[in-house]
Amino acid sequence: MSQTETSAKPRTLPPRPTKAPKSVGTRILDFLGSYALAMVILTMLLVLTFLGTLEQRHRGIFDVQKDYFESFFHVCDTLGFPIPLIGAVPLLALLFVNLTVGGMIRLRKGRGTIGILVAHLGIALLLIGSLVEHSLSTNGNMSLRPGETSNTFRSYYDWDVVVTEFAKDGSGERYVMPHERYADMSDGERVTFQSERLPFDLVLSGYQRNSVPRRAPGAGGIDGYLLQELEPEEKAEYNRPGVLATLVADGQRDEQILLWGMQTGPHLFEREGRQFGIDMVRKEWVIPFTLKLDRFVKDDHPGLAMAREYSSYVQKIEDGTAQSIHITMNEPLRHRGHIFYQSGYDDIGRDRNGEIIYRTVLAVSVNPADKIPEISCYVIALGLLIHFLMKLFRYIKSENRRQRHAAAA
Amino acid sequence: MPQLLDRRRSPRVVFIVLLAFALGPYLQSAFAGEGDEGYGNERKETTIQHDGWSEEVLDTAARIPVQQGGRLKPLLTYARFTLLRMHGYGVYRKDKGTDDERLIGPMEWLLDVLFVPEVAMHYECFRVQDAGALIDVGLEKLTKGKKKSDRYTFAQLFPAAQTIVNKAREYEKVEPRHQTGVQRQVLLMARNVDEFYRLMRFMDFARMKLDLSSSPELQRIFDGKAELRASDLLLGSEALLGRFQKLTAGSSGSGELTGEAKAIRDLLGEAEGPVSRASALRIIPPAGAHAKDEGWYSPASMSSLAPTPPEMANLLVPLERAFDARLDGAAFQTAIQDFQAQSKKLAEARDEYDKIPLEVTLFDLSPFSWALWIWVGAFIVVALSWMWPGARWLAWGAMGLLVVGLAFATYGITLRCLIREKPPVSNLYETVVFITAVAVLSSVITEWINKQRIALALAPVVGALGLFIAGQYETLDAKDTMTPLVAVLRSNFWLTTHVLTISIGYCAGLLAGLLGCVYVLSRAFDFKTKDTRYYTSLTRMTYGMLAFGLLFSLVGTILGGIWANDSWGRFWGWDPKENGALMIVLWSLVIVHGRLGGYFKAFGVAMSSIVLGIIVSFSWWGVNLLGVGLHSYGFTQGVYSGLMTFILSQCAVLVTGFFWHFFVRKEPTRLAT
Amino acid sequence: MPALFRAPSTLLAAGGALLLVGAALPLAGCGDDGPHPIDDVRKVSKVDPRELLERSHDERFARAFPGGQRTTPPPGMGSGSPKPAPAGWTWTTPEGWKARPKSGMREVSIEVPGEPPADLAVFVLPPSGMLDNVNRWRRQMGLGQVAEAALAGMAYEHRGEKAILVDLRGAYEGSGRKDRFLGLLKMHAGRLLSVKFVGPEDLVTANEQKFHAFLKSLAPQSGGASPHGGSPHGGSAHGGGAPGTPPVGDEGGLKGRLTWDTPAGWASIASASGQRIATFRIDGAPDIEVRINSLKGDGGGLQMIGRMWANMAGQTPPTEEELAALETISVLGREAVIFEFAGKRPVERGGEPVDVLLLGLMCTLDSETLFVRIIGEASAVAPQKAAFLSLCKSLRMKE
After folding, report:
1. Which chain B residue's Cα is nearest to A67?
2. Given an 8 Å threshold on Cβ–Cβ distance, is C272 in contact with A255?
């Protein structure tokens, strides 16, 4: 109608005062702290998360995590066609920069934005915590039968190659070739390890993440065996790796040994009158104290095989003194940077009374950033709450004012 | 005062309202995933004439405690979910096609199966959703004249019972993800046939009469009785076993038994069959020497206690009397009441009975059904209030009905919390009910703040729809919704707060999405075009709901991480449920930053809120479907089609919005401040 | 359409920022090409290579083959309980003794009532050294260790077979009172039968007669040897192989200096394992494996080798007399013992027992012992006996 047409005059703005052109540095900072960048990064993270979730229909969570959320770049084909994605590492790093520049440094500071500032601080803290955890934390597990003690825990996913020299008195010296040094080798690559105390060099090659030994046809293979590569297991803890180890010493013939994660024991060999064994075992870490399982308690729901509750009574033995501790679900043991969680249990047979014997499984983690998520949660919640409440009160006040005006009109 | 409704637009509103009602049945069938009921003829080949059970009997029987699925529950709950699982409906239409045709409830159905199995075996209460399953087990003849998904009687299925069991054992080995529809049906059939059979045979022990006339020595043990019933045998078990041990004390244990010892062994052997068939229901509370036991007993498992405590064996007496009197209304009632009273007394002595009446109330009263229909009524009142905007009492009436419905819903949630002794949200079913109630509550509060009648209109729709979905979930899942929790979900402060905040976050996200729909559809259908206050309010409500949702979702997600950190040692594991929550937070942040940066104005906020609604629904329901094969019968099929319907409807709104924004609108919308 | 980027140059800036940020983060090492020093060396307290003697690749990879555990989950992943050995024994419980249910490794479990009660248990275990078991029990009773020679004094006949009866007095597992321990060890059908009866001294003494009566009644259930829980033996290469020359070996040690005449129809396979000198496959008999290897010192001794090889063949271990009566031939200027064991054993894990024949040669040299061994189904090995003997006789040092 005519009223709308005549009122549609273009708004005239006052002439903009001329400003000095922005320097390159300022423009970069503008960009880094911009809402646009925030929106783009967040959307890309959203798409990454969505596709990573879909991919978990077919692949295990460990592998998806490595490809999507711990990488720089990944081409996803879970929808049937390739989609190039920037990985979570650069995205989160850039988010941190954007958050700091735009959300904290360049934020208009005032009463109205204090909540936002606090919330951004909390998120920045959370991101730092996750970086610390990603680079500095160690995870594994420890299983104990009743009465058993242990001062080590083992990795779920990493396997070391170990050479043990056997001494006459029944002890041994174990030389460890760590997972991270050889497991990322590419096809055809060889990784060499040496030590002055060993009369040979050890060369590892042909590493396979999941494999099984097969009898070699004809006269081929290593002593009649080959390692056959398998598809990675959906649960990465079940992968059984294999690698070819070659012993090299000057003037002596190279000896080749096939190693397999699930082999029943080390392969023995001799050099210069010394007895050695070579094995492939899960990576093991030593704890500065010992745990002993006194009792594992499991309580089932009546009439069901489902556990209602289970927990472990352990003793922490350190410097000769023992302390009794109860580890349950949701109540881990925290000591000297190590955290022990009641993760699960195994049924390992029956005792003389026919009662089932359980072996407790404790998840162990060394995580310097353990408490950071909790702290950041409080900070974020506080910031958002402040901001939200302020906005809410303002909204209610303005609604009331509007309604009073409308009533008066 | 501006017109709330342009009179020329009113037919459009009426049309929309009528459309909503018309769509209802379609939506229902979309959720249920199948067609109609499948009636058939019931052949009565039995001479037993049973007239049904009285109200008192049904009420008493409902309150019999039974332990099943890890917890003690009223027999009514057991009956209800068993019927639901076997039949697909919560009620059974008995005597179809005759003059006596009527609907019976689950309690009556169960009593029929237990006490007049000769009649119940001809009830068409076995739903088979894929006739291929019948062909697979050799019952092809049955499928003639029947639909693909139809109902059958026990008598029809039983001849193939062995085949069904064998096939089921085979199919059990296939991973659930890879099972075909027919395999799943056969597995379900096996389970249902087995349970029905055990229920039918449950009272066999009451038919048993052991003849002692040829063993005067044994008669002496049993106070001169020449005929023993199961209860007599179990009551005298201690004496009997003592006598047996004395008789066999000296022997090497490998010789032949003679005389009295042999008679005792033969007696026990004869009794073993019928008593061992009474295994379906654990209705005998532990007492006497076994008072410290945690698990309840069925008559079968009780008989293997050597000896059986008399306090427990005594409970068989009223059951036998009830069976004797099954065709005699008054005597049956007395017997059942006796049993219930005895069982209740023993249960109270163990402090286990107090929740039973609460649960019976929950199912009898059905507060969620009340809430649902009250909210439907509220919607009608709101629709009327649009047509007569001047009548403010209509708006108040609608508000009142909303609050009343909310009271019922809250009552239901509270009852469940009391019964389970747990905080309100511990499984998927409870999230639906809780989120619905919170949605209605927040809409009521929003309406109270801004009185625009937008939230008032939305609330009953959301409420009724939500409770409807909850009902469908229960029917499709056909499992007790108050199951005990796995150890890792044992109540814990972080876990409880996490679940509650995330649920509230979901709720707010969905409401924001629905408000966005209202905005877009209003624009597209030219609703109140000149009323800028309407649209401004809408936008503010949407954004406010969004911010509220962001707060709760973000905090809830991190709380979830803290709980996981304390339980398993890892704060964030990128698993589907966690990722779902993260996606909600990320998108909410995108909208917030988009608005602050000026990229999203009113229209942009509305559209992106609709996307948020889609993400919330994916996170809430979609992630559960990922682990299981998507195209399967029953529960997941129902969830999948419901979810798809919702997402497609939202996409339709988005498309409408784009169309309007780029091709239809004449002037840019003003920035909502 | 809302403007997301102000200018195209910002797109370039975005790409550059991402690269910078990406490069600034610690990257995984691009793989140094040089050798890595092993800097992680740890002390391990208890290892005993003697128990791991003769562990061939077949045994090492046993879990990979059908019948073996193909997927052994790591601890904590629900590995399930090991299954007890299949029932294969009958006995009579003496009067007054209380039989308890079989559990785990305990084939028989009996309680002798008393305050405190005495415990009797029968185990059927994989083969291990008798001396080790005796010393283990002695340790449990708080006693010192004994040498192999002492075993001769513990000889006992159980159901016509050679066994060892152990009688110890001490304090069982630090009980603080006077306990007595009666035990029986016997190799049977490739497994170690172990009976253990321990309790307060007077209670055990009072029940000693009943213990011997129990032992007398303890018999395997009728039937052949119980299925072997051990690893499959023998290779399964198909077809012929490499020329029959020994691999060029290391100086020092037998490997490089030993040579022989490969019989017709036998092919030598290249072998890189340290202790293995040669491996042969036989034409037309792909399931038989012949191996020549050497071990330091006496390789365990005649009795141990005899016992081990008898187990492998499914035969009861040879007695002292039988060992002394074994044929000898002259190899490398020494008296080398020829073993021939025949028994019934499943060749495939979980399969039917078949007739198995083992032919072996043990030649003790100055600082090491040479072994030649052929094992497989009797019908396939028996025709190779002549070839085997000719191979053994042809063993000589290279000039």
Report:
1. B574
2. yes
